[in-house]
Write a structure and sequence with these properties.
The chain is α/β, with parallel strands linked by helices. The protein is built from six helices and 15 strands. The structure holds nicotinamide-adenine-dinucleotide (NAD). The site of nicotinamide-adenine-dinucleotide (NAD) has 23 residues, from α1.
Amino acid sequence: MVKTGIIGLGKMGRYHLNLNDEMNESNLQMLCDADSATMDAISKNYSYEMTGDFKEMFKKVDAVTVAAPTKHHFEIVKECLLEGKHVLVEKPITTNIEQATELFDIAEKKNLVLHICHVERFNGAVQELDNITDDPYLIESRRVGPYNPNFKNDSIVLDLMIHDIDIILNMVNKNIVGLQANGSCIYSPTPDFASVAIQFEDNCVANILVSRVTQKKDRTMSISQRGAFIYLDYTTQDINIYREAKEGKEFGLKEMKYKN
Ligand SMILES: NC(=O)c1ccc[n+]([C@@H]2O[C@H](COP(=O)([O-])OP(=O)(O)OC[C@H]3O[C@@H](n4cnc5c(N)ncnc54)[C@H](O)[C@@H]3O)[C@@H](O)[C@H]2O)c1
């Protein structure tokens, strides 16, 4: 059985802790957090060995989950890979493409698994999309919600849009031929909202809007393809499919109604 450890025990690290704790395939050995108060709180409910320095795990684990803040991912993941540990790292893998490429190069050379936790890929509704979508021509994605200062140092593209980019690139198997992007900083030093239009070859367009400065949470994706309109709600994991819809007009004595 794989001996595992978790580095970073904040919001996401605790999800990983609960799941690892229940998994038969994972033999959780050790937990790590840089903050002693966090470790004290966790040790009240779990009896795993704890450390404040992730390097102390190396002798005891085969694989680690990294759920520390994004700015530390590169340094932690690199050290773990160089020590021969398989790594599951929270998204976004790093803050820039060069660092991500370097990590995958090390993993490949050392024959290690390096996997990014794109958890939205495993949302039940997203999994079902594979069975429904067929050559879409218009994708409209909206992932907005209220402000969370926790991620103010990650641009909204790395924080949230990365999920939509991942899902859309898996759905549209075509080359990108054009891209337009706009965004603004409202409360953070990095963009708080962004709107991106991706033009794929063969007249397929994806419009993605993400925001962490919108007072109402809304996480949806609409897909138009020949013969169907698909509407997915990430929060409820519902999918609605509209087929054979016709726009028509009905005339009454005093009113005119539109029917769809
Ligand atoms: N997959 C998703 O849908 C999803 C959702 C939210 C966040 N995330 C990602 O998860 C990561 C963590 O986010 P979070 O909300 O749990 O953050 P958090 O701030 O709640 O937790 C981070 C924890 O890491 C600890 N830490 C900091 N530096 C460390 C180090 N060098 N060694 C060990 N521990 C260290 C902190 O003390 C803290 O307890 C981020 O990269 C974020 O982008 C992913």
